[in-house]
Specification:
single chain; alpha/beta; 434 Repressor (Amino-terminal Domain); Rossmann fold; 5-stranded parallel β-sheet; 4-stranded parallel β-sheet; 12 helices; 13% strand; elongated
Amino acid sequence: MARARPVAVGDGQGTVRLADVAAAAGVSSATVSRAFNLPALVREDVRARILATADDLGYVAHGAARALASKRSRTLGAIVPTLNNTIFARAIDAFQRRVEERGYILLLTTSEYDQQREWERARAMVERGVDGLMLVGGQHDPRLLHLLEVTGKPFINTWTANRGAEHASVGYDSRALSNLVFDYLVGLGHREFAVVTGSSSHNDRVAGRLLGMADAVRRHGLAIPPARMIHRRYSIDEGRCAFRQLAASGPLPTAIVCGNDILACGVLFEALAAGIDVPGRLSIMGNGDLDIAAHTSPGLSTVLTPKVEIGNWAADYLVACLEGREIDLPPELPVTLVLRGTTGPLSA
């Protein structure tokens, strides 16, 4: 039978101490501590030498003891709706890289677009000692907001503009994004539209885009029949199903606006399979500018959203709060049309 054996840990709990690493690396104990806790303050070659020495000696920094001494776990939590959508993955990757530069580690979970689940998982993270939280959207269970208030945990809402927000937020104006898209397509001569998007339930980003679409349609004196407003889960298969549903319900519109690039790709693939000329007969617009958008044929027109910037700003804000520094968040981040081959002027 395998037997447990002692593991070397830091802070005097095992065989190798922080002072041993310092002596072996030829630096002070304070420098070793900074190399683990505040790596940005240590020269890269010195930190590399310290980490190599720690590996050789089998030293592991004692997180529990360090947390007790500083009253901080140096762990930040992030709750995103799903990891199936690479839009969130891009932002999380940027967030993680940024916080690691300041000596923090990321604890990540998903809410699956469920506010009850988001609250439960936030509570579990707080119980495990996270120092702050990155959330998605501006709508949350009131119990979650109360929890963060009474525990004093800093948090930031992402993917939603900071202008006029009750809580610290970083993102873009979803309503303005839809106006940008519809103004462009109407400018190409389109008047018959369909919309394929996700559910607006517990998703204020979708709700904001739908409000923007309503603004634009009303402003241009147009209307979108209910049969052309289709809500689907975010997948290529669901996008294909949405196109078939549209085709079966009557004459096709001249333009389809999709909630994200994944749905748009499904719509595009099914339209091409049905022999539809894109963009001669039908224009298709995505949202997000995922990698796949540049590799479809024709290339997918879409909207570039500031995924990396959102992750970086969220990290900077939480670290600043924990370090007692003030930081000015931008009122909103810009979005940009990326025009490729799936949109064009209305054919005569």
